[in-house]
Amino acid sequence: MSGPATPASAPVLPAETRIGHVHLKVADLDRAIAFYSGILGFEITQRYGTQAAFLSAGGYHHHIGLNTWDSKGASPPPPGHTGLYHTAILFPDRKALAQVLKRLVDAGWPLTGASDHGVSEALYLDDPDGNGVELYRDRPEADWPRDDTGALKMVTKRLDLEALLAEA
């Protein structure tokens, strides 16, 4: 068995490649739907009784799959174990991000963080099953911070939530 590919021999995916969807094991399907659909705004595209549902933005077949096949009533994995760090959901612009922040505030849903990364503005929270969720919007690439050589220079600064909410 060979080791990891070296940079010179590593395969390169086409630039158009995207992560199509995330499929989450949840403890309570209705609770998860209430969060992803009722608060975040994803539409249910299909439901399989009490065991699974598929949700989407804009009519795509699904961006998020939820199921209780192996997890009904289960607890989240304990801290310090491997698993999903977070699912990142990209919003088209700052206003859309502000609108979802307002829905979270109105629902009393707590944030675990909020950062300005220079390239993006991001809200961090946990879903009802303890899965990390990042809600973010990208800045135009021409506005991304770069060093003197032109290399990307991301940062982590405090995001002004009041200013963001004012755009909702």
Describe the structure.
The chain is α+β, with helices and mostly antiparallel strands. The chain has two domains: 55 residues, 2,3-Dihydroxybiphenyl 1,2-Dioxygenase, domain 1, CATH 3.10.180.10; 84 residues, 2,3-Dihydroxybiphenyl 1,2-Dioxygenase, domain 1, CATH 3.10.180.10. It has three helices and nine strands. The protein has a five-stranded mixed β-sheet with strand order 5-8-7-6-9. The protein has a four-stranded mixed β-sheet with strand order 1-4-3-2, covered by helices on one side. Strand 2 and strand 3 form a beta hairpin. The longest helix has 14 residues. 17% of the residues are buried. The mean pLDDT is 94.
Overall pLDDT level: 94
The number of helical elements comes to 3
Order of helices and strands: EHEEEEHEEEEH
Low-confidence stretches: none
Rg over CA atoms, rounded to whole Å, is: 18 Å
Structural class: alpha+beta
CATH class of the largest domain: Alpha Beta
Q: Provide the CATH superfamily of the largest domain.
A: 2,3-Dihydroxybiphenyl 1,2-Dioxygenase, domain 1
Question: How many discrete domains?
Answer: 2
For the largest beta-sheet, the strand count, sense and barrel status come to: 5 strands, mixed
User: Count the strands?
Assistant: 9
Distance between the termini: 54 Å
CATH architecture descriptor text of the largest domain: Roll
Q: CATH topology of the largest domain, what is it called?
A: 2,3-Dihydroxybiphenyl 1,2-Dioxygenase, domain 1
Classify the beta-strand content into a percent band. Answer: 25-35%
Helicity range: 10-25%
How do the strands line up in the largest sheet?
A: 5-8-7-6-9
Q: Which shape, going by the Cα principal axes?
A: globular
